[in-house]
């Protein structure tokens, strides 16, 4: 049985396993101020940075009231997967989190998966950026990207509005989207080889149809939310640590084994060349 037998999207399969846009990345520290919601704070920081897209590493961010969703099965007879009902917590702090930032209808938008602690314990999920309140200032890392942009548009295969990398040229970094059923480890390895990077750091979030690790218990669920945590590293070979959660809230973690973990809906990435 292949992943296409397990997860069947409503539209035609993509012609390529992934798409990329190359550009220039630079790292800077930005402060997300207290009294704002996450989306507005990020929008202001992106305007100030003057970049086209980016990734924020939101480790340590404290949250006041916040909402999130979990992965879930579809109930509309169209999509292959969907989201849970919205969950709310009174407060929490992110242990590890990655926000992919681009544009939706001309305005800033973000897609964030994170691991956090709250009154419910340690959880993993998809944060809703307009419903995450910031009770304190927090300095975080922004990897700003110029020369290409993550643009939200409807994906023909999945019928989800998701980020697609657009434009691009030359530079020390690339943004990318891995398409459904493509192996995540093999796809990232191939795009780094194509870029000619000897060493690189990999940031990303998405969903997988199961996950098999070099060590530890595999995730069997074909529906999930995942993040690379901590960042992946390329030095002639790829080390890809992943944190995963399934629809029941079960959590899994480890280094992804090659040729074992295909993408479910999408996987968004920023790859930065290192000296």
Question: Tags for this entry?
Answer:
two-stranded antiparallel ribbon; 60s Ribosomal Protein L30, Chain: A; globular; 275 residues; 2 domains; mainly beta
Walk me through the structure:
By secondary structure, this protein is mainly β. The chain folds into 2 domains: 17-23 and 146-273, Hypothetical protein, similar to alpha- acetolactate decarboxylase, domain 2 (60s Ribosomal Protein L30, Chain: A); 26-144, Hypothetical protein, similar to alpha- acetolactate decarboxylase, domain 2 (60s Ribosomal Protein L30, Chain: A, 2-Layer Sandwich), CATH 3.30.1330.80. 10% of the residues lie in helices and 50% in strands. The chain has 3 helices and 21 strands. The chain has helices spanning 3-6, 38-49, 184-195, and strands at residues 18-32, 53-57, 62-63, 66-69, 71-72, 82-83, 87-89, 92-104, 107-118, 121-132, 138-146, 148-154, 161-167, 173-178, 200-208, 225-228, 232-234, 238-239, 241-245, 251-255, 263-273. The chain has a 17-stranded antiparallel β-sheet that branches. The protein is globular. It starts with a helix and ends with a strand. The model has no long low-confidence stretch (mean pLDDT 97).
Per the CATH scheme, the topology name of the largest domain is 60s Ribosomal Protein L30, Chain: A
Instruction: Find the structural class using helix and strand composition.
Output: mainly beta
Taken as a percent bin, the fraction of beta residues is over 45%
C-alpha end-to-end distance: 42 Å
- Write down the CATH class of the largest domain: Alpha Beta
The shape is globular
